Amino acid sequence: MRLIKIRRKSEQKLRHFNKGEHGSSTIEFAIMLPLLVIVFAGTAELGRLFYTYTTLAKASAVGARYLSTSRNVVNGTTTEKTNAKTEARNLVVCGIKSSVATACNGQTPVVPGLTTANVLICDNFSTACSPPLAAGPIKYFKVEIQNYPFSA
Question: Are 109 and 127 in contact (CB under 8 A)?
Fold first, then answer.
């Protein structure tokens, strides 16, 4: 008889305990939601950072490829060399091959905030590179993006 009463009391306590858990999943969700939002936003921002990095790397490669195939940069006059470098800067910034220094004004840059002032072209002849590029009969060019203002 006593055993049955003890079981009933413990079952009643268990039922009472289970009745108190109705809102616990809502509270757990409310606690975890800010953390999940931060993780999601951080993942999206990291993806945007990688997208920007690869776009800038590809754009600088386009500028270097253009300069390495341009005859004016190697054998041209000073004006032709300057125009070829301006064309390369415009290709890097907005994808337009133009020798006008303001050709990218009003155009959408490949990455928001990129300007021709961010593009450094060095060749060890007119602009020294750091570290220096190899000298010899083949002319090398280095196109860099400097001081790009990435905003998170």
Answer: no
